[in-house]
Design brief:
With 118 residues, the chain is mainly alpha-helical. The protein is 63% helix and 12% strand. The chain contains seven helices and three strands; from the N terminus they run ααβααββααα. A three-stranded antiparallel β-sheet has the order 1-3-2. Helix 2 crosses helix 4 and helix 3 packs across helix 4. The radius of gyration is 15 Å and the shape is elongated. The chain starts with a helix and ends with a helix.
Length: 118
């Protein structure tokens, strides 16, 4: 991730509802959540949630896919990990034992996909 991408991601996350949405989607894992469920859980209107989802998708932090009549949103774990790696890139002058916990988070893999769970 470069600085421009990081700025876009941080800009998207700098709003309370959008940060809440990303955290919900991270917890929901590969199954993701439908827009209506996200709106209900975040306690915002459908038009409001649509605006926030578009901003997050534009930043690359979330993705959408159609499943029959619903649009399901999922966290983009690769982009989120890239953002953490961007922050920790030169951590502690290369002193890895200090940064090991954060580096482990940044290196983590996305949760198993639905297909892998079957």
């Amino acid at each position: 991730m470069d600085q421009r991408q990081a700025l876009i991601a941080f800009g998207a996350l700098s709003q309370e509802t959008r940060l809440q949405i990303v955290r919900m989607l991270v917890v929901s894992g590969p199954d993701g959540m439908a827009a209506g469920s996200i709106a209900e859980k975040a306690e915002v209107s459908a038009s409001n949630i649509s605006f926030h989802l578009k901003e997050l998708e534009r930043s690359g932090l979330i993705a959408q896919q159609r499943e029959s009549r619903s649009i399901i949103y999922t966290a983009n774990y690769e982009a989120l990990g890239g953002l953490i790696r961007f922050l920790m890139e030169d951590c502690c002058g290369g002193n890895l034992e200090i940064c090991a916990p954060a580096a482990a988070v940044a290196a983590c893999c996305a949760p198993a996909t639905k297909e892998e769970l079957r």
